């Protein structure tokens, strides 16, 4: 049962992401059990939940890496099923895995992804994003030789190359120290011009409250709590989260 | 045109990676040479025996070397989630299939181009003929068409090194048998017309499995 559902939008508002009755199963195991979710353009939604709650599966379905078993996903009004390539063009994905080839240099990796996303003026764009993330000096080093924090910054650079309208962040802080986490958040386009719609999954409730405008708790593939971080009922939230963590463990 | 630009980007990325690490071509080549040397010692130096067993030895070597090479193809993509990185790109799954397949084809052809002259030297046979080259190229295309598909399937399993050969060899058996027969005929001096039935089987296998693998690849990697 959803403990706090807020009607945050008028019907006329443009949704960046709309998910209706999303189900994903692996054999007899139901990873997602009828997810309904709407995300406004420019909104930062945080999804918390224990390990195995279905956070990564949800991100993989939204990123068109996995097909849903049933249900509907619309991204900027485009049905994911029929327009997967166009949807992927509008999405950037950062996870605890970098999607970077360790044997190639940072530049070669970014150039490869520029080609895959048809980014114009590749060289200029690569230098622009690496400067933004402070990794220019390591651009011609092999990714495998860089620190975990540096690799994650490059992963964000990779994600920003094609100027995505929506960013899906799946536990991007995993394995990072505090300084790297702080840099990660500074690098994300969360404010001003070019602000992205962000869907973030995390195990860290405090981080979720800090960065998100709306917070959801996922438990066994279902949303059990949903509310604005500004007007949330902390007691309800903690109860829902602790319950999900106990069940998850 | 956009399709081929992205295919070339994937193949090029694999080629650069291989030039840096030398993980596939040198190790698989050493394996192929060892197999040929073992067979050479096992069957002695009698020329009539060599001519009889050479086609089988050649294709057993290439088949095992092919499996080793294909196994590595998608393993590299699994490291740090690179396969998912490819899957979130706005490209069709077919682009990924063709790009990976051409990379594997390139590596296997390089291995075969080096292994064939050594085979000719070890077995004292005229395998460096146009007929053998055509048979080798056609058979290798069929190999990698099937192997790339099964490699993508096997990479998500725990025992991937076992799963790939178990899936791969029963399917490629017709093309291996055809290649052995065609190579035997070529080595015994048969003209092209004598080889033609076997080449037709190899060509048909290539066409069927290129199309089938192209069409089903998306289902294999999207879980």
Task: Offer a concise description of the structure.
Chain A is an alpha/beta fold and 249 residues long. Chain A has eight helices and ten strands. Chain A has one domain (15-248): 3-Layer(aba) Sandwich (Rossmann fold).
Question: Would you kindly provide a written description of the structure presented here, covering whatever features stand out?
Answer:
The complex is a heterodimer of chains A (249) and B (223). Helix content of chain A is 33%, strand content 27%. Chain A has helices spanning 55-62, 84-90, 106-116, 122-133, 148-160, 178-187, 205-211, 234-248, and strands at 15-26, 29-40, 44-48, 70-75, 78-79, 91-95, 166-170, 197-202, 214-219, 222-228. Chain A is globular and about 50 Å long. The model of chain A is unreliable at 1-12 (pLDDT under 50). The model of chain B has no long low-confidence stretch (mean pLDDT 90). Chain B starts with a helix and ends with a helix. The longest helix of chain B has 32 residues, at 47-78. In chain B, helix 1 (2-21) crosses helix 5 (93-123), helix 3 runs parallel beside helix 6 and helix 7 runs antiparallel to helix 8 (192-221). Chain B is globular, with a radius of gyration of 18 Å. Chain B has one domain (2-221). The chains are: A alpha/beta (249), B mainly alpha (223). Chains A and B meet through helix 2, strand 6 and helix 3 of A and helix 1 and helix 4 of B.
């Amino acid at each position: 049962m959803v403990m706090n559902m807020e009607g945050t939008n008028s019907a006329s508002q443009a949704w960046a992401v709309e998910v209706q009755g999303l189900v994903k199963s692996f054999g007899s195991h139901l990873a997602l059990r009828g997810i309904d979710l709407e995300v406004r353009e420019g909104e930062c939604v945080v999804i918390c939940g224990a390990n195995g709650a279905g956070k990564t599966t949800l991100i993989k379905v939204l990123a068109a890496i996995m097909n849903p078993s049933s249900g509907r996903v619309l991204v900027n009004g485009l049905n994911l099923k029929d327009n997967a390539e166009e949807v992927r063009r509008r999405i950037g994905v950062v996870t605890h895995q970098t999607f970077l080839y360790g044997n190639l240099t940072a530049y070669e990796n970014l150039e490869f992804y520029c080609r895959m996303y048809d980014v114009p003026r590749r060289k200029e764009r690569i230098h622009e994003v690496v400067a933004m993330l402070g990794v220019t000096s390591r651009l011609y080093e092999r990714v495998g030789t860089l620190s975990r924090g540096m690799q994650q910054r490059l992963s964000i650079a990779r994600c920003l190359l094609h100027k995505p309208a929506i960013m899906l962040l799946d536990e991007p802080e995993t394995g990072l120290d505090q300084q790297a986490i702080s840099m990660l958040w500074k690098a994300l386009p969360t404010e001003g011009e070019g602000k992205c719609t962000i869907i973030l999954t995390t195990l860290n409730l405090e981080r979720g409250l800090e960065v998100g405008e709306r917070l959801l708790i996922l438990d066994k593939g279902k949303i059990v709590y949903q509310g604005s971080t500004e007007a949330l009922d902390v007691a309800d939230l903690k109860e829902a989260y602790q319950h999900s963590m106990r069940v998850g463990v | 045109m956009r399709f081929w630009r992205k295919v070339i980007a994937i193949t090029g990325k694999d080629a650069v990676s291989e030039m840096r690490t030398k993980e596939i071509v040198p190790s698989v080549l050493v394996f192929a040479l060892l197999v040929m040397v073992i067979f050479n010692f096992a069957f002695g130096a009698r020329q009539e025996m060599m001519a009889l067993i050479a086609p089988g030895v050649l294709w057993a070597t290439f088949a095992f070397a092919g499996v080793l090479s294909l196994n590595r193809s998608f393993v590299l993509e699994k490291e740090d989630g690179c396969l998912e990185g490819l899957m979130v790109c706005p490209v069709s799954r077919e682009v990924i299939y063709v790009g990976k397949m051409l990379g594997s084809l390139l590596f296997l052809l390089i291995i075969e181009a080096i292994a064939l002259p050594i085979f000719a030297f070890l077995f004292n046979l005229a395998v460096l003929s146009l007929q053998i080259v055509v048979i080798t190229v056609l058979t290798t295309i069929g190999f990698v068409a099937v192997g790339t598909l099964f490699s993508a399937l096997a990479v998500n399993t725990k025992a991937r090194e076992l799963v790939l050969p178990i899936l791969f060899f029963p399917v490629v058996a017709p093309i291996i048998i055809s290649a052995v027969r065609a190579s035997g005929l070529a080595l015994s001096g048969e003209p092209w017309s004598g080889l033609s039935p076997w080449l037709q089987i190899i060509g048909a296998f290539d066409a069927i499995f290129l199309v089938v693998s192209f069409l089903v690849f998306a289902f294999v990697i999207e879980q």
